[in-house]
Design brief:
With about 70 residues, the chain is mainly alpha-helical. Helix content is about 55%, strand content about 0%. It is globular. The mean pLDDT is about 95.
């Protein structure tokens, strides 16, 4: 069964508005909700943001974030 979110279309902003998803994001990437670039990427699909941040965001953390969000 597919999860609640498709990270190819669900925006980062939508995830941050969901208390369960936000808790996962804060657990895996605690600095994200206060990041100065957040306003610029909130309207983008989550996977797009992860791809853009790949050089600054470890692949293992990205995989964990995707896994946990997909389990919702």
């Amino acid at each position: 069964m597919a999860g609640k979110y498709d990270l190819d279309v669900t925006t980062l902003g939508q995830l941050l508005e969901d208390p369960e998803a936000r808790a996962i994001i804060v657990d895996v990437v605690p600095e994200l909700p206060d990041h100065p670039m957040l306003a610029m990427v909130k309207g983008m699909p989550a996977n797009t943001v992860l791809a853009m941040a790949a050089s600054q965001f470890p692949a293992d953390k990205a995989a964990l974030l995707k896994e946990r969000i997909s389990a919702l």
